[in-house]
């Protein structure tokens, strides 16, 4: 085993953290060079710990890690980008946590996936600067599915193979894509999907992020797209996500405040 196997110096994001022992913490870290790993920080909960201020969930950090018996050990941590605009906005914060929840569920263990790390890094920047993060999230979700091999088929009926026409269709998480109206009625546990929602999902699937910024969607279509994507992501992952409900609560509170003014 050479030094490259025993020592990591890498950009990283903290995904989760759990207190360990009297003063330590165990982290789930998403690194550029080793992918998703478990890392241990000695004494990080002590008042004088220098590392604690850098091991924040919503921050791009640079880590030095050494291979331990069970986990990687964090020996040095420095903040590269603190994303203060995200941390100062509750909606942006909640959406950033959603991105990290997806990474925690979908990123493979101990396997570097450079396109996925770059996608997370770009997404955090976009959440920071964009007023409306809806397209940021949809772009991330579909690119995540592409990188991890779960991209749904949105162009042809997954049952009969016919090209999808510009009309309302069905979406099946189990089948992995769209069903035409004739085939859709033959399956259970499918969702109806409107022509507009499907159109925009296909647009996101084939477009660059810059092209997506020009799109203007109604709230109804956004909610439908959110529902379809969450249905599919949950099916693949085989368990519910926590952050979407939190995001919905925050957005509802903001909407009610706006109505009350």
List the main descriptive attributes of the protein structure presented here.
261 residues; alpha+beta; OB fold (Dihydrolipoamide Acetyltransferase, E2P); de novo design (two linked rop proteins); 5-stranded mixed β-barrel; 3-stranded antiparallel sheet
What can you see in these coordinates?
The chain is of the alpha+beta class and 261 residues long. Helix content is 43%, strand content 22%. The chain has helices at 3-6, 84-87, 90-106, 114-129, 134-148, 181-184, 195-206, 209-212, 219-237, 243-260; strands spanning 7-20, 24-31, 35-41, 60-67, 72-81, 169-172, 177-179, 191-193. Helix 3 runs antiparallel to helix 4, helix 3 runs parallel beside helix 5 (134-148) and helix 7 packs across helix 9 (219-237).
Distance between the termini: 64 Å
Number of helices: 10
CATH fold node name of the largest domain: de novo design (two linked rop proteins)
- The CATH homologous superfamily name of the largest domain equals Recombination protein O, C-terminal domain
Number of strands: 8
CATH level 1 class label of the largest domain: Mainly Alpha
In the sheet with the most strands, the strands line up as 1-2-3-5-4
Tally the structural domains.
Answer: 2
Tertiary shape: elongated
Return Rg in Å: 21 Å
Q: Note the main sheet.
A: 5 strands, mixed, barrel
Proportion of beta-strand residues: 15-25%
Topology:
Elements: H1 3-6, E1 7-20, E2 24-31, E3 35-41, E4 60-67, E5 72-81, H2 84-87, H3 90-106, H4 114-129, H5 134-148, E6 169-172, E7 177-179, H6 181-184, E8 191-193, H7 195-206, H8 209-212, H9 219-237, H10 243-260
Helix pairs in contact: 3-4, 3-5, 3-10, 4-5, 7-9
